[in-house]
């Protein structure tokens, strides 16, 4: 199974020129790693119409999506609109949306079901809750997993990309600290176990990633664990070289194992 590296650009960069420059900086190099690594870039919505021409080796993702199909929802973007710009992934349940915009598990659950219905791959973030500490992570992730995948048909559960991303590990959070590879791997195993309870052996066909301050200096900590299928990368994905080193390290580890 290919490893998956996802760039979450958040509300960056400020201009389309910078966005295009970043995209182009990886486009050709990715051919060298495409046998073992898949790369998804999640830019702000406004850049999607200009970046969709680059979709080939690089896939496009959105950072959010409305929980309903269409209608009077100021400021929201629908699944169908995203599909129009060749978006194939969508980040759902990110800590920042839970924390600053009050998103709940039930809203995330609606979005997950709608994304699957429209054949968009949900990138479901688990572990985001302000104040939760490390000892509470297994129960928090268990609760979020159950609530966010409620009524999702078993046959669709492996289509979701799960990301263990504890709030405190996000580089821009107050008093942020990255997690250790060991803890990340344990939590990834835990998510696989939750999946196994629902779909048995098919759990192995799902991807489970880690997110939180992954960068070129610490990527080996995570890439060396075979069960960590990739990374969700924020700040480091805005630096062309830093992000490329992350991709290369996951590729190197995969080559080493194959
Ligand atoms: C994120 O917020 O999804 C993230 C992974 O950010 P960072 O890599 O900056 O911690």
From TrEMBL:
Swiss-Prot/TrEMBL keywords: Cytoplasm, Gluconeogenesis, Glycolysis, Isomerase
Compartment list: Cytoplasm
Cross-referenced CDD domains: TIM (cd00311)
Enzyme Commission number(s): 5.3.1.1
Example GO biological process: glyceraldehyde-3-phosphate biosynthetic process
Catalytic activity, as annotated: D-glyceraldehyde 3-phosphate = dihydroxyacetone phosphate
One Gene Ontology CC term in the entry: cytosol
Domain of life: Bacteria
The name this protein goes by in its record: Triosephosphate isomerase
Family recorded in the similarity comment: Belongs to the triosephosphate isomerase family.
PANTHER family with a match to the protein in the record: TRIOSEPHOSPHATE ISOMERASE
Subunit details: Homodimer.
Top enzyme class: isomerase
Pathway terms, separated by semicolons: Carbohydrate biosynthesis; gluconeogenesis; Carbohydrate degradation; glycolysis; D-glyceraldehyde 3-phosphate from glycerone phosphate: step 1/1
GO molecular function, one term: triose-phosphate isomerase activity
């Amino acid at each position: 199974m290919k490893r998956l590296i996802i760039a979450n650009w958040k509300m960056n960069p400020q201009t389309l020129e910078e966005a295009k420059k970043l995209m182009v900086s990886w486009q050709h190099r990715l051919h060298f790693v495409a046998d073992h690594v898949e790369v998804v870039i999640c830019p702000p919505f406004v850049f999607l119409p200009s970046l969709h021409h680059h979709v080939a080796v690089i896939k496009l993702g959105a950072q959010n999506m409305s929980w309903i199909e269409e209608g009077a929802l100021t400021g929201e973007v629908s699944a169908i609109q995203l599909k129009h710009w060749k978006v194939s992934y969508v980040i759902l349940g990110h800590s920042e949306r839970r924390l600053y915009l009050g998103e709940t598990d039930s809203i995330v659950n609606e979005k997950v079901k709608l994304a699957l219905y429209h054949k968009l791959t949900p990138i479901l973030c688990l572990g985001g809750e302000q104040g939760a500490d490390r000892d509470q992570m297994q129960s928090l992730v268990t609760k979020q997993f159950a609530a966010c995948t409620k009524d999702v048909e078993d046959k669709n559960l492996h289509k979701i990309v799960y990301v263990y991303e504890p709030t405190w590990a996000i580089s821009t959070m107050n008093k942020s600290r990255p997690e250790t590879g060991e803890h990340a791997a344990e939590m990834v195993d835990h998510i696989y176990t939750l999946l196994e309870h629902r779909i048995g052996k098919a759990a192995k066909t799902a991807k489970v990633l880690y997110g939180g301050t992954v960068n070129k200096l610490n990527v080996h900590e995570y890439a060396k664990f075979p069960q960590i299928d990739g990374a969700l990368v924020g700040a480091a994905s805005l630096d062309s070289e830093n992000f490329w080193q992350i991709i290369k390290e996951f590729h190197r580890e995969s080559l080493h194992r194959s």
